[in-house]
Amino acid sequence: MTQAPSRRDLLKGAALGAVAIAPGLTLIAPAVQARPAGIPASAVNRWGLLIDTSKCDSGCTACVDACKTEMGLPALDRPATDAQYIRKVDVKDPKTGHQHSLPVMCQHCAKPPCVDVCPTGASMKRADGIVLVDRHICIGCRYCMMACPYKARSFAHEDQSNQKAHNPRGKGCVEGCTLCVHRIDAGGRPACVEACADTGRAAMIFGDLNDPNSEISRRLSKEASSRIRADLGLDPAIRYQGI
């Protein structure tokens, strides 16, 4: 008689990638592994998103709302000054009249112009491609905001309160989408992706662009996709389908 595997055995097997637990049944490890504390980000990975605009409804703001909650951004209904890491944009083909609704955030470019123009190094790109702002050395000059062709950064005009531990904010600093780097480092997905999946639309796929076996890489290898302002040669990590 074969002894059933223990919970410890299953977890050990999962950590290695996959383990057979019964005939025809396999336990698969998560697609994204948590990064151990003290280990720096690696260029082995390049995190990105694939957004299917055919599944994105113009009236849906689940990704925007989830981002505000996750990152501790107050909803003051002041578009001119409120911090906004992700926004919904409606685009229209002038020839056909066909419309699309799509979320736009920091595109986490391989060649980010915001990093190039920053005089202090506050705008930076991690080895895994995630573009961030170090608020400790940001002087609020806003050169990065002018350089970004996606209008993906905000400026903190006021004193901040009720901040999240993973997203400390300060008056006079520039900020933008971090791709929920705190979640990624813990082995999770960005809050916008989770919220989109919860609606049942699942228009957003997160994954490692450098891993040919990841879902996002498999989709990109088989289906056409676009980059916003691909002509600039910035190589964004955010890809779109249907535009």
> Major sheet: order of its strands?
10-3-11
Shape, per Cα inertia axes: globular
Strand tally is 11
Give the fraction of residues assigned to helices. Answer: 10-25%
User: What is the CATH-assigned architecture of the largest domain?
Assistant: 2-Layer Sandwich
Structural class: alpha+beta
Just give the CATH class of the largest domain: Alpha Beta
How many domains, as an integer? 2
Q: Number of helix segments?
A: 7
Order of helices and strands: HEEEHEEHEEHEEHHEHE
Mean pLDDT: 86
Distance between the termini: 58 Å
The main sheet comes to: 3 strands, mixed
Ranges where pLDDT stays below 50 over 5 or more residues in a row are 1-30
Radius of gyration: 20 Å
CATH topology of the largest domain: Alpha-Beta Plaits
Structure description:
The chain folds into 2 domains: 1-30, no CATH class; 47-241, Alpha-Beta Plaits. Helices cover 21% and strands 21% of the residues. It has helices at 7-16, 62-71, 113-117, 143-147, 181-185, 191-198, 215-222; strands spanning 18-22, 25-28, 47-52, 86-92, 99-105, 123-125, 131-133, 153-155, 174-176, 204-208, 238-241. The strands form 5 sheets. A 3-stranded mixed beta sheet has the order 10-3-11. A two-stranded antiparallel sheet has the order 1-2. A two-stranded antiparallel sheet has the order 4-5. The longest helix is centred in the N-terminal third of the chain and has 10 residues, at 7-16. The N and C termini lie far apart (58 Å). The model is unreliable at 1-30 (pLDDT under 50).
